Amino acid sequence: MPHVTVVDHPLVQHKLTLLRDKSRSTAGFRRLIKEVTLLLGYEVTRDLPLTTRRIETPLAEMEAPALKGKKLVFASVLRAGEGMIEGLIELVPSARIAHIGLYRHPQTLEPVQYYFKAPDDIADRPVIVVDPMLATGNSVAHAIDLLKAKGATQLRLLCLLAAPEGIAALDRRHPDVPIVTAAIDSHLNDHGYIVPGLGDAGDRMFGTK
Ligand code: URA
C-alpha cells in the first residue's frame, strides 16, 4: 500500500473548498492553486535529507542545516501539473523541472507519450511528480514508469485531490511512491472525473472552457 498523507491543515481545506466552488473565476482558481500548492509543498518536502554547512553569522561560526545532495526535480504531468509548478518554484527556486506530456488514446484509453524531458542525472535527485488530480491513476503511473526508466528512484507524488481508484492503481503499479494530497474524494464518475472533485483542473486553470 503506498503511503498516503492527507494534509488536513485548516488553510488547505478552506482553500480547497474555494477551488471546488464552480463559481470561482479563472484568476481566482489560478491564485488558489498556487496558494494550496505552497502549503502542500511544505509537507511533500518535509523529509528531504539535511546535512550541515559551516557558516558565519554576524555573531559566531556555526554548523547550520542545509539540504543535502543534488537539487530536487519537480516532474510536471502536462498540462494541469503546470499550474502547481509556479507555487513549487517559489518554494524551491533552484529545483529542476521535468515535463511529461501524455494524452489518452481515444480507442484504447491508454496514455500515449507525446513529450518527455528530464535531467540526465535524475537518478541522483529526489523527484516530486506533480499532477493535481489522481483520478484513474493511469497517466501518473505511466509518467512514473517513464521517470523510473530514466533512472529516478526517489519518487513521490504531489496532487490536490485523489480518488480511491487512483490510489489503488498507484498501489498496484508503484507501491514505493508515497502520495501527498489535500483530500481523498468519494469516487470516479463514468467519465473518469473525481466526485465531488473540482471539475477539469486544466480547463479551469487555463480558462479553456
Ligand atoms: N482530471 C481532472 O482535471 N479532473 C478530474 O476530476 C479527473 C481528472
TrEMBL record:
HAMAP family: Upp_B. Keywords: Allosteric enzyme, Glycosyltransferase, GTP-binding, Magnesium, Nucleotide-binding, Transferase. One of its GO terms (molecular function) is GTP binding. Pathway: Pyrimidine metabolism; UMP biosynthesis via salvage pathway; UMP from uracil: step 1/1. The keyword Membrane does not apply. Residues 6-208 form the Phosphoribosyltransferase domain. Catalyzes the conversion of uracil and 5-phospho-alpha-D-ribose 1-diphosphate (PRPP) to UMP and diphosphate. Belongs to the UPRTase family. One of its GO terms (biological process) is UMP salvage. Uracil binds at residues 194, 199-201. PANTHER family: ADENINE PHOSPHORIBOSYLTRANSFERASE (PTHR32315), URACIL PHOSPHORIBOSYLTRANSFERASE, CHLOROPLASTIC (PTHR32315:SF4). The lineage of its organism: Bacteria, Pseudomonadati, Pseudomonadota, Alphaproteobacteria, Hyphomicrobiales. NCBIfam families: PRK00129.1, upp. The keyword Glycosyltransferase applies. Its EC number is 2.4.2.9. SUPFAM superfamilies: PRTase-like. The gene is upp. It comes from the Bacteria. This is Uracil phosphoribosyltransferase. 5-phospho-alpha-D-ribose 1-diphosphate binds at residues 79, 104, 131-139, 200. Allosterically activated by GTP.
